[in-house]
Amino acid sequence: MKVSELNSLFQSFSTFRILVIGDVMIDAYLWGKVERISPEAPVPVVSIIRRENRLGGAANVALNLRSLGATPVICAAIGNDEKGIIFNELCEQNGISTDGIITLHDRPTTIKTRVIGGNQHMLRVDEEVDISISESETKKLSERIFLLLNKENINAIVFEDYDKGVISPSLIQEVTKEAKSRKIPVCVDPKKRNFLSYENISLFKPNFRELTEGLKLELKKNDFEGIFKAVQHFHNNKNIEEVMVTLSELGIFISNGKEYKTIPTQVRDVADVSGAGDTVISVATLCKAAGLNSTDTAAISNIAGGLVCEKVGVIPVEKEALLKACVKFFE
Prior knowledge:
The protein is of the alpha/beta class. The chain contains ten helices and 13 strands. It has one domain: UDP-N-acetylmuramoyl-L-alanine:D-glutamate ligase (3-Layer(aba) Sandwich), CATH 3.40.1190.
């Protein structure tokens, strides 16, 4: 891509409104230092210096979209609890609409607490309920989604599935059917539970482990022909236009059903891979909304995922840094 084309692409991001459907959570951090081993057990003692709450899960996808200039609208469920209040406050602080959020009275807000000692990720503690929400709650969420589709000019839809029970096969079917009738591209970051429930979508983005677990296959990560053969299932049986598989240190695989390409990863100082998948699907969705071809979409998404891995913790990609890295890549 030429520099002028990249500039135009990144400028177009600010014109897009993206519906983000999925499992939201709070990423909490306990930052500290480690100076000794506990006398009670052979484990390090972390002296906490500060605490921090960030948007996580599908909300991190929204945060990435916001960082890139787009307007995200989250459709998800939180609990009627203290963490739910914090979640709404974080959305407000980051300029993200909560019009699509429903509050459930018998379900806690998901929170993942990471303990960071001396910039090293040492431990994660999860507080969550991952059973599927009820049919009546799904209906409530669906009604909220359709209300927003009628109210807002939505340019693309993202399903950010963390297997926490908010996304169901019936919700997927309803939304994708409506999106198809409106010619709205739908992109998916799947997990195991609903892996085979996605049909008639624009972009399907599992990572390598999710692909092999979802299809119950044994493959080697560098067996690109084997991966291509495996994803034919989605192209042929699920009517999925493009399948993008993230391969961590090997980069990204992209297929349109007729041919595939691999984009190798760039050498970086990896500090933390948390949230990289959220960034990749966010960038890929904006590229799809802009009508970009699959190869360039994969390349730009790959660069974005690499950039956030250089930082500790779950953080959104920076628009200017991504543009600069893309210009360097394509020159």
